[in-house]
């Protein structure tokens, strides 16, 4: 039932992502995590069915076999008890026959000698007692052998049962731990993916380089700290930003920008050319006045 509910939740997140553009990566990540949990639980159920339920079913069948053996042993014991009771009855009849004169017996009424009737009964009782005694000895030996064999089998079965059940439950615990590890890994991976998708977007190296090229014309009010700054070593903030961006792995590194003195030198060179042009113009004006 739990797996069926998870299977129902996975497409729900997938359909939800179609209507939420901003939440699409997070919802799809949740859907994949739920699917991974479903797969892990299904694998665990299949392994439990094979490595846990099947051995328990075999032990249940073996238990039924043990019950059958015990019933057969109880039948032997019941037959032994019945034979002992019959032997005791025959012995009591023999003792009563010794003190009886058999004058009121059926044979005496039919005209037989009471002593002959008594003697015949004694012979019959002795024969029955002898047969019952032999049966008692046989059943006693049979019952003793059955008890000894059953006891040995039960002791061996209990030892095997304890060992097998311990291995079965330890294997079950290992499978459960493995399942929980898979589910935990799926959710941890989902959390990392969701956090990665919600990070602030950083400027690319091309954007940083473009800003650096026009940095000399940017006013202080329009110069944010992450766009253009000069440190004490003379390196530009654009170079540091590109290095940081490359360390984060968001975009490839770009070649470092030239140091500050290059920009200053070019600026000074431009200024020198301007002053030279001005001096040349002044000299030309003076020469014209002199000629006039």
Automatic annotation (TrEMBL):
InterPro entries tied to this protein: AH/BAR_dom_sf
Subcellular localization(s) per the UniProt record: Endomembrane system
Gene Ontology MF annotations: lipid binding
GO BP annotations listed: autophagy of mitochondrion; endocytic recycling; piecemeal microautophagy of the nucleus; protein transport; reticulophagy
Annotated region described as Disordered, given as residue ranges: 245-292
Keywords associated with the record: Coiled coil, Lipid-binding, Membrane
Biased composition (Low complexity): 273-292
Domain of life per record: Eukaryota
Coiled-coil portions: 122-149
GO cellular component: early endosome; phagophore assembly site
Bilayer disposition of the protein: Peripheral membrane protein
Chief location of this protein within or outside the cell: membrane
Family matches, as SUPFAM superfamilies: BAR/IMD domain-like
Name of this chain's protein: Sorting nexin/Vps5-like C-terminal domain-containing protein
Origin species: Octopus bimaculoides
């Amino acid at each position: 039932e739990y797996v069926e509910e998870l299977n129902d939740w996975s497409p729900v997140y997938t359909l939800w992502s179609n209507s939420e553009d901003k939440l699409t990566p997070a919802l799809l990540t949740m859907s994949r995590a739920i699917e991974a949990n479903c797969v892990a639980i299904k694998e665990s159920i299949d392994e439990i069915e094979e490595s846990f339920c099947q051995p328990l079913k075999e032990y249940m069948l073996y238990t039924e076999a043990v019950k059958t053996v015990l019933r057969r042993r109880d039948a032997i014991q019941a037959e032994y008890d019945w034979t002992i009771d019959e032997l005791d009855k025959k012995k009591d009849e023999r003792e009563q026959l010794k003190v009886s004169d058999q004058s009121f017996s059926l044979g005496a009424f039919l005209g037989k000698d009471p002593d002959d009737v008594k003697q015949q009964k004694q012979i019959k009782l002795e024969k029955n007692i002898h047969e019952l005694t032999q049966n008692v000895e046989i059943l006693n030996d049979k019952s003793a052998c059955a008890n000894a064999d059953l006891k040995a089998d039960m002791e061996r079965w209990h030892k095997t049962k304890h060992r097998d059940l311990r291995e079965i439950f330890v294997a079950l615990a290992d499978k459960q731990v493995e399942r929980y590890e898979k589910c935990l890994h799926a959710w941890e991976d989902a959390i990392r993916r969701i956090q990665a998708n919600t990070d602030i977007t950083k400027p690319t190296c091309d954007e940083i380089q473009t800003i650096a090229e026009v940095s000399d014309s940017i006013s202080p009010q329009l110069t944010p700290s992450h766009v253009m700054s000069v440190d004490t070593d003379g390196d530009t903030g654009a170079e540091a930003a590109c290095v940081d961006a490359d360390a984060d792995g968001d975009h490839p590194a770009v070649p470092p920008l030239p140091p500050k003195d290059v920009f200053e030198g070019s600026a000074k060179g431009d200024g020198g050319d301007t002053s030279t042009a001005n001096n040349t113009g002044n000299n030309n004006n003076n020469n014209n006045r002199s000629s006039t």
